[in-house]
Amino acid sequence: MTEISWFGALCDDDYEFLGVPEERLQSSWTHCSEIVTTADRLGFDNVLLPSGYQLGMDSTSFAAAIATHTEQIQLLLAVRMGEMWLPQLARQLATIDQMAGGRLTINIISSDIPGAPLESAPRYQRTREWMHVLRALLNGESVEFHGEFVDLVVDPPRMRTVSGHCPPFYFGGFSPAAKDTAAEHADVFLTWPDTVAGVAGTVEEMTALAAGYDRELKYGLRAHVIVRETESDARAAAERLLSKLEADEGEKIRQKSLDTASAGVARQNELRESSSDDGFVEENLWTGVGRARSGAGAAIVGDPDQVLAKLHAYREIGIDAFILSGYTHAAEADLFAKYVLPNIDHGPLYEGSTTRPA
To answer: What domain range includes position 110?
Structure first.
């Protein structure tokens, strides 16, 4: 079974035409809650609530509110390591999981804290320490930890998750330090769009790294999707999406992200540069989205059978979960749910927080 998730667009990342902001599509409670409740109604298994600073709404506050407006969908809450006092963060996350009836999952973010940049190696050391201590606190364990970034002796908060255990950690990163951190502490390793062979190489590498810690990982792919009744319609929709983009505006949008210089972004740039004139780097994988977006910069584009076949190809090389998005997010969720979702055997990787990750 495969987990199929959607994207909450809290980070001002919703457009009818890439690079042309519209007030109605900017991050707001009204707009983003519509996306999430739509995904819930359509039967998606999980929804990513991304974290930005300059870009849009606070993900933790939003998660607490939307937990009371959704029924089935899990909430993949993005949390930046180092941004909040650890005991308070643990209490906050446990409270949100209670509000959501055990539907919380956690997306670990290791980017810079706004206004306090840090080199890659120490930043991932901070993330490693935070993941270790956060998991212990959410498991209800007392902590005595003396590290480079965390120096803490504290009992866990009384407030616990529904299951009493830490929700699963979803985490992605492409530098050596990021991969090693994920191998030791993550439950689901997230990768950005790549060729099928490229993703297979990542899965193989991470499986070996996790084995070095006597662990096993699940794997997720974050990608955009454009599905239409015919391939020509899907390609036309992709072309329309870029039809008003100016190069300078695209670059400005990419530079707003805190992860602009990361190894993962560099790989997305390589994919775009190696694509054909129409932006396709391999069959049904289109890199045009990356012209106006930092981070995941490619889309699966095609008719329902082609999109389904592409997802199956990734599934066959080890992908257990997909975090998908499209422009506009509510409309594309409806199209994906109409044309593709009924033909996928899907469900949550973890049933609420009742399954304790290894």
So the answer is: 3-226+299-343
